[in-house]
Predict the 3D structure of the following.
Amino acid sequence: MRFEHDEWAEISELVGRLMRFYDSHLHLCECRRPDQIVSLMEFNETALLSAGIDRATSMKTLELSKLFPKTVVPFIGVHPSEAKGDDASWVQDVMTVAAGIGEIGLDPRYSGSTRDQLRIFEEQLGYAERARKPVQVHSRGAETECLDALGRYELVSVLMHWFESERLLGTVRDRGYYVSLGPAITQSKGLRRIAAAFDGDRLLTETDAPVSFRPLDGSQGPFLVPTVVFELSRVRRSTFEETRLQCEENAERYLHLGKG
Ligand SMILES: [Zn+2]
């Protein structure tokens, strides 16, 4: 389903100004029927920072962003789960048309050598540094190692996606990195403490779709972003609209820092 522009304008006049949301980290190419998800989110003015996990999903993400340039913000890269053997030189070849590099990082729970993961992570950090592109970082179970690697590069804009280490939050803050929180905030006291303690101007919202959340009825997808905004507003004792607007400003700053 796609809404034609005239139809969209008419509906938007009926309901008033739509609120813009950002899903700052998800994987459209791993969702079922991504084009229909994007059509719905386009209508709702939700921006989707969609990350690849390997070459094939990154290319598909770039294709989706051509079809839906207002809505899909493409990130390309090699996820730690896919970091085996080869290098990631293809990232350098196509990165000019991507908004950023992600999802990249380290995770000891995936098979494959940690040395390969680190080599491919650092290779991509080097590309991001030279091209002044934002990065989306996966650091589960390897937060210290990720921060060590990140510290070796001059990066314009870093998102620590679904960051769970309260102990290292100070380092993330001191470096001016961003942290994104997803629907798991509704079930995790640790994430709520991070949401309350971290700087408001560095918080982003995400869903990591197609990851699903059982307490939310197994729901998944970017339409859960308002739920995250609501939970953030409760934790940070601000209004829903103040929180939404702050997250919008943060996401735009995160994305555009590199553009001079
Ligand atoms: Zn992810």
About this structure: The beta strands are 21-26, 46-51, 72-76, 100-105, 135-138, 158-161, 178-181, 203-205. Residues 25, 27, 51, 103, 208 surround zinc ion (CB under 6 Å). The domain at 19-259 is CATH 3.20.20.140 (TIM Barrel).
